[in-house]
Amino acid sequence: MLRMMGRCLIVILLISVVILITAAHVNVRLVGGHSRCAGRVEVLHRGQWGTVCDDFWDLKDAAVVCRELDCGEPVDALYNAHFGQGSGPIWMSYVMCMGSESTLKNCGSLGWDKRNCDHSKVAGVICSEVRLVGGSRCSGRLEILHDQTWMSVCDAVFDQQDAEVVCRELDCGAPVQVLGAAAFDKGDTQMWTQEIQCRGNESQIHLCPTSTSHENNCSHEHNIGLLCTDIRNVRLVNGTNYCAGRVEVLHRGQWGTVCGAGWDLADAAVVCRELDCGEPVDAMGDDHFGLGSGPILIKNAMCNGSESTLKKCGSMQSSVHDECLDKSAQVICSEVRLVGGSRCSGRLEILHDQTWMSVCDAVFDQQDAEVVCRELDCGAPVQVLGAAAFGKGDTQMWTQEIQCRGNESQIHLCPTSTSHENNCSHDSNIGLVCADNMKVRLVGGNSSCAGRVEIHHRGQWGTVCQEDWDMTEAGVVCRELGCGEPIDALGSAHFGQGSGPIWTRIMLCTGSE
């Protein structure tokens, strides 16, 4: 229930209706930067250029602008009139792009000339002026944007220091290999023949000096290609293991933190998925694993839980900077998962040294099963199955004996010992079926379809705060319980206060969950 309701996709915060801008002819430009691909965002409406308010402005919005201008990938989404305030009207406010739109006009917003900010809060964008083509996100033929034209680069004018900068600018880690001789095809662009002279520590290629090259014979046969490491851009720091800790993200070569304000299980789910760490167990917005010392790179993350990376989630500019000073996003991911069945049934795998391992049926018992089902929020164990009931899999085998008492909240809290079972193979993989208990209930009413809303999380029932609670959220609950349509959405503890923790403080559903 927490994954379904705890963070329904935010499309409304301070406004009641989000509308789409549908003007027939809308142009966008970047003003006040070092090139046409960096600057203050301005849009053309009714024959006049105006700015965009930075409320809700994030990398998804920046990605649309960069795409519309054919400026590569977004490097930064900037706030607070970074490139100057501009002088025209503020045409757009509360822009909320999904990131896939072809133009900024196709993104949701308040509407034209409807704003809640002044010129000190206009949005800016920096797009990358390099891209890798013909490979993956972090590998391919190098192209540089020059005078509004993408150009291939001659292998004679590019070296390892230049590669360091390109990989950093694209958030792709370090260079693995610099390839000449058109390793990623010849392409059909013009040729860039100036010699690039990076020191290797620059954040963007346009900051590197260039000089006229003596190589006059460059052709597409000499296109440079590049392989970067494509490292993960998120990590968990200061926890008990790789899958627990303070959330840090890598941006333009620097690690920074994520503000804990509004951080929830949907955001945590994306981090756990990105790190291949199973399901989220807890999402904290405090200093549980420390506050960190780097810059706060993401404020008010707004994931719907299905994104592949944290950087693909929406976010918003925090209106009160102080709210982030003592709040840093923290995550605990599960170190167990069930594979080959449903959410709460399947072949058991345990994460050890960043590797998922199958478990031998000889080292696992009912008490261990109690803990696994509890950790996955799946109720009680129904059946423990040996003999590879859910398939053999192809992972390494975990052969240590797990010695849970049965009341632990996570499997990593259980002691282990060396097993005498040396003959474990994939034919002996353990499987597990948990009850998958209902995660929402109505308590204190005159039937199972009326009452105080309670949700089940980490083995305990708790309540939901009434803030922003309305018929949309009530409709999701009624649907989940098979109770038809909602009649009323009540607050003020109408059915009693309950005694458990308040698991969810703000519920913002779209109604389709």
TrEMBL record:
Disulfide bonds join C53-C117, C66-C127, C97-C107, C154-C218, C167-C228, C198-C208, C272-C333, C303-C313, C360-C424, C373-C434, C404-C414. GO terms for cellular component: membrane. PROSITE patterns: SRCR_1, SRCR_2. Residues 28-128, 130-229, 234-334, 336-435, 440-513 form the SRCR domain. Coiled coil: none annotated. InterPro entries: SRCR, SRCR-like_dom_sf. Keywords: Disulfide bond, Glycoprotein, Repeat, Signal. Residues 1-23 form the signal peptide. This is SRCR domain-containing protein. It comes from Cyprinus carpio carpio.
